[in-house]
Specification:
Shape: flat
Radius of gyration: 19 Å
Number of strands: 0
Number of helices: 3
Order of helices and strands: HHH
Number of domains: 1
Helix content: 55-70%
Structural class: mainly alpha
Largest sheet: none
Strand content: under 5%
Distance between the termini: 43 Å
Length: 75
């Protein structure tokens, strides 16, 4: 079974390494193929939402507004 995991805290890598030493899991390191896959991922999902033109425009505007929030100070 293949599962993709996003590591949030550095300590999780130690736990994963321990599990690999116990032969419970196998860690695959990123390769050039993964980088190519990540670049092309938007092509795989293009049109997946099946939105009308009006809904698509609303969706894009919400995304733009959300991106503006990233640049605001937290404090």
């Amino acid at each position: 079974m293949l599962v993709t995991v996003e590591v949030i805290r550095e300590g999780a890598l130690d736990l994963l390494s321990d599990m690999e030493r116990l032969d419970l899991i196998r860690l695959n390191t990123p390769t050039k193929n993964n980088a190519i896959y990540e670049k092309n991922i938007s092509r795989q999902f293009a049109g997946a939402l099946h939105l009308s033109d009006a809904d698509y425009n609303i969706y894009q505007n919400v995304l733009k507004e959300g991106r503006k929030e990233w640049h605001k100070d937290i404090c």
